[in-house]
Automatic annotation (TrEMBL):
UniProt xrefs under Gene3D superfamilies: Phosphorylase Kinase, domain 1 (3.30.200.20), Transferase(Phosphotransferase) domain 1 (1.10.510.10)
Listed InterPro entries: CDK, Kinase-like_dom_sf, Prot_kinase_dom, Protein_kinase_ATP_BS, Ser/Thr_kinase_AS
Keywords on record: ATP-binding, Kinase, Nucleotide-binding, Serine/threonine-protein kinase, Transferase
GO MF annotation: an example: RNA polymerase II CTD heptapeptide repeat kinase activity
One GO term of the biological process aspect: positive regulation of transcription elongation by RNA polymerase II
Transmembrane spans: none
GO CC annotation: cyclin-dependent protein kinase holoenzyme complex; nucleus
Region of interest called Disordered, as start-end residue ranges on this chain: 1-20
Xref: SMART domains: S_TKc
Family membership: Belongs to the protein kinase superfamily. CMGC Ser/Thr protein kinase family. CDC2/CDKX subfamily.
Record carries keyword Lipid metabolism: no
Protein known as: Protein kinase domain-containing protein
Source organism of this protein record: Solanum pinnatisectum (tansyleaf nightshade)
Amino acid sequence: MGSNHGKSSTIRDQSVEGTVSSDVVETFVAEKKEEILHTRRRKPNPRLSRGVPKGIEGELVVVGWPNWLVAVAGDALNGWLPRRADTFEKLAKIGQGTYSNVYKARDCLLNKAVALKKVRFDNLDPESAKFIAREIIILRRLGDHPNVIKLEGVITTKMSFSLYLVFECMEYDLKAIQEQERVKFSEPEIKCYMNQLLKGLDHCHSRGILHRDVKTSNLLVDKDGILKIADFGLSTFFDPEQSIPLTSRIVTLFYRPPELLLGSNYYGVGVDLWGVGCVLGELFTGKPIMPGRTEVEQLHKIFKLCGSPSDDFWLQSKLPNAKILKPIKPYRRILHTTFHDLPAAAVGLMDTLLSITAEYRGTAALALQNEFFTTEPFACDPSSLPQCPPQQRD
C-alpha cells in the first residue's frame, strides 16, 4: 500500500475508518462456536484471560477506560493510562491491516514517530469487542521482544466505539523491500531475515501464541534492519497440553497449510512454520511459491510441489474436506527438484517446514539449529540489509 501524504492533523476525527470486516468478526465468532460445542457447557474462555500481565486480583482498572473495554480486556489494561487523541499528530496513512487503517503519526508528548492502528466497530457487538480485546491481550502478553512489534499504548474515549493502538514506528515491510526495483536478496541477507523471523516466532510460541498469518507483508523492518512480526489481528492463544478447537478460516491463502484447507480445527505451531517455509522460498525466488486463486487450487498446488498424503491418510481422515478435496491421482514430492538451483541447506530447511504432516515441521527453536544457519555463508548483520524508501508498507 502506497503512502497517502497530506496535511498533518491532530487526531480529533471520529469518522468511520477501519471498520471491523465481517469476515474477521465471523472468524472470531466461528472459533467461539467451536469452543462452545467442544465443551458442551458454557465456561469462561481461558484464551481471553490467562497469561495477561497480572495485578492484584479483582483490582479496579484505572479510571478513564471505557466500560466495554474493561469488560473484555480486564487485567491487560493494568498499569496503563489511556492516551489522549489530541496528543498525537497524524502525518500520513501508511497501511491497511486485517480490519484497520494504519497511520504514521508524531507523539507530541514524547516527540517521536509512532504508528497508529485505528479500529472502529459498529454498535456494541460483544464478539467484535472481544476480538479487538484479544489483540490487546496478546500484544501485552508478548511484551518487549526485539523481533515482535511492541504495543506502546491505547487511545480511546468513552464517547466513541473506536480506538487506536499505538505501536513503535517501522520503516517498511519485507514485501515492499523485495518488490523495490526487483531486489534479489543474497543468501546471507535471507539468513539474517529468517533468523529474526524464527526468533520472533519462538518467542510467540513459548508464550502460547499462534500468529496465524505469517507472510512477507506482516514482517516489518526498521532502518537498522531489525525485523519484527506484526499484525496480530488473527492471532490466538493455544496450549499444546490441552487441545481446544480453533477456526480453520485463518492465514492468507498463499501461506495456508494443507491441514487448514482440509478443514482441521485442531492445530498448533505447524501452521506458522508452514508460513515460514513459504516465506523462505519467496525470499529466494522473488515471488510466492504457491500462489493459488482459490482454496481448491491452493491445495492442488501444495500437493503438486509437496506431494499428496498416503492412501491410508485419506481412508482414516475425519477432516471435513478430506473426501471432496482428495486428488484424483496421488502426487509425489518434487520440492528438491523444483528448487535444485537453490542452496542445498536452504532446500533442506524448506523440506522440513513444508512437510505435509504438521508434526514433522518441528518448532521454531529447532529450525534455528538447522544446517542452513550453522554453515557458511553466515547471516549478515542487520545493519547491512537493503532498505527502501519509507512509507511503502503493504
